[in-house]
Amino acid sequence: MDNSYINELNSILQNFSVPQKVYNFKSINIGLINYTYVVFELNKPKYILQRINTSVFKNVKGLMHNYNNVIKLLNSNSHSEFKIYNTNDNTSFYTLNDDCWRLISFVKNSISYNTTSEEKIAFEAGKLVGNFHALLQNENPNDYIETIPQFHNLQLRLHEFKQAYKKASFNKIDVTKSEVDFVQKTAPFLTQLNNASLPIRICHNDTKLNNMLFSKDSNKGLYLIDLDTVMPGYFYYDFGDAIRTLVNSAKEDEKDLEKITFNTIMFEQFIKGLKISDLKITTPEIASLQYGAVYMPFIHGLRALTDYLNNNVYYQVSYENQNLDRCKSLFKLAKLAKEKIPYMSSSIKKELIV
Ligand code: GN1
Ligand code: MG
Hints:
Bound molecules: 2-acetamido-2-deoxy-1-O-phosphono-alpha-D-glucopyranose, magnesium ion
Shape: globular
Distance between the termini: 55 Å
């Protein structure tokens, strides 16, 4: 990172109520939406500074309101390490031109993983997701704004896909033939899902593995981070998104589709972790979980395909076809998960129905 950028980041930090020092920064490139930096004091990581992508998150005030709701609950349960640092004007984010910045704590001795095949991590992940939901289960959905309206609504994502397809270049239509076929074949199966009997819960909505913090020493699950999409939803969203990143240890943009797997041991460990969490899950929710494990890789693959057809206007990409690679690997996982529905359903029942 060059010196002028380090100075710029330091001058942004001066607007927050933290000791005024000269800090160092390291950029983290794993997110696809916001820009994230670890802030170091001497050589120690102290904070996480983020520039919120305001073309994706249009209501930052509402987003930070949701964030604060969750942090308050976490802190009242003695998880005091995770906090937001306010600005000198006592607001939860700092605005500079069109950009919004926020500062949160760096949780000491924590680690996150992009991929894993460690069974203990899958088990801890199940506990973490379950306990997050248990913590939020009495929240009033009206106290949360929808940071991205209809975020996991498949009808909306299919509509966006169709719009993008109409405008896409001949070449893109040609190279995406088999993915488009997969959409046509799979969408009717998933749009049949009936949410009517499911309770609306405050969900995290982005429970992929690298949004989970674990203890560096013991791999105990600590926190779910990245609370930008905390808003009302169905439990199978969070279940499915965690499963998609635990049963498959290949990267999200893996080009070699042979490497995409559905690891049943990791699946079972996650369920066992969920079972011993404090979450009280309803019977209709239990019946919906296996579909969540197909729904989430499918909807993410569909959104990646749409962005590829739209010439990469939404996700940050590091090469031209990255969205297409993400789509292919996510669709492969959705296909594997769909074949595993009978297995998932009996394994879920065995553990969760008492
Ligand atoms: C985006 O930026 P990040 O990694 O937190 C996306 C998620 C996807 C994820 C794919 C607001 O999240 O829905 O699961 O990329 N977030 C938004 O890894 O679109
Ligand atoms: Mg996110």
